[in-house]
From TrEMBL:
<feature type="domain" description="PBP">
    <location>
        <begin position="41"/>
        <end position="295"/>
    </location>
</feature>
<protein>
    <recommendedName>
        <fullName>Phosphate-binding protein</fullName>
    </recommendedName>
</protein>
<comment type="function">
    <text>Involved in the system for phosphate transport across the cytoplasmic membrane.</text>
</comment>
<dbReference type="Pfam" id="PF12849">
    <property type="entry name" value="PBP_like_2"/>
</dbReference>
<comment type="function">
    <text>Part of the ABC transporter complex PstSACB involved in phosphate import.</text>
</comment>
<comment type="subunit">
    <text>The complex is composed of two ATP-binding proteins (PstB), two transmembrane proteins (PstC and PstA) and a solute-binding protein (PstS).</text>
</comment>
<dbReference type="InterPro" id="IPR011862">
    <property type="entry name" value="Phos-bd"/>
</dbReference>
<feature type="signal peptide">
    <location>
        <begin position="1"/>
        <end position="24"/>
    </location>
</feature>
<keyword id="KW-0472">Membrane</keyword>
<keyword id="KW-0732">Signal</keyword>
<keyword id="KW-0449">Lipoprotein</keyword>
<keyword id="KW-1003">Cell membrane</keyword>
<keyword id="KW-0813">Transport</keyword>
<comment type="similarity">
    <text>Belongs to the PstS family.</text>
</comment>
<keyword id="KW-0592">Phosphate transport</keyword>
<keyword id="KW-0564">Palmitate</keyword>
<dbReference type="InterPro" id="IPR050811">
    <property type="entry name" value="Phosphate_ABC_transporter"/>
</dbReference>
Amino acid sequence: MKSLKFLAMSILVGSMLVFATACSGDEGSTGSEETDNNEQTEDGQLQGEVNIDGSSTVFPIMEAVSEEFAVEYSDVKAPVGVSGSGGGFEKFTVGETDLSNASRPIKDEEKATAEENEIEFTEFKLAFDGLSVVVNKENDWIEQVTVDELKKLWIEDGNAKKWSDINSDWPEEEIKYFSPGTDSGTYDYFDEVILDEEPIVKDATLAEDDNVIVQGVQSDKNAIGYFGYAYYLENKDTLKVVPVVNPDTGEAVEPNNDTIENGEYAPLSRPLFTYVNNASIKDKKQVYEYVKFTLNNAGDLAEEVGYVRLPEEEYTTQLETLEGLK
């Protein structure tokens, strides 16, 4: 009997030890998962993810930031999505992303959605851009364009348009249009300053990917399109940029670093942004370090990919704002 009691006791103790070990293992697993999401590995290396989406125009800057950031923080994953400014804000305002890149300011209705979802955010400027109007390299008739001509070109009027409908000196050939998609901040900006919120020509090819616009204009002598300055610079050997007449001075101005920064390239110069979820700054060290890295390097990297840096004091002021969010 004694031996049976001893055997039963041994089984009970053994079961308790297995249960305790299992519980201990579960607790360790949970701690590891939390570390993977946010903080640091056992050797002190920062790790986790930074969720980023938004503007295709801002994409070249943030892609460069993520590549450089990975050199210093190899255990942090920061891929950059490209769903357009509007598409990015749809995710950002419901808490799906940490950063939302935009080539236009956030709209009132997007702010309202963020407020409904208790998303507090901060806007940071990254660089300047000059929205560039481009035509096919073989186009030898258009040397400059006025704002009024851009309106005639791009606003829907119920007719298929020929170049000669805009300017009698231009050929009687039907125009082919390539534009950013309606989720794009570039489209929104063009809509505001050129279209006056009138409908865009119905036969325009709309694309969230600016490379589609590049290829479309490259492939047709009668094509016209527009996108961010960096995409023109990247393809300047195969595209022709059209100087835009400044409405105030009457001078035709080509987009370049100087004319974009000093505002001569009007009305198509604009700032580029990233919006940051304040909670992500407080709760995720990798997000704070990523944004800090961005502001410290945005000027150099923006110029490397074809945009125009802000005055240095603007980056300094924004770094101080970031510190206040911790």
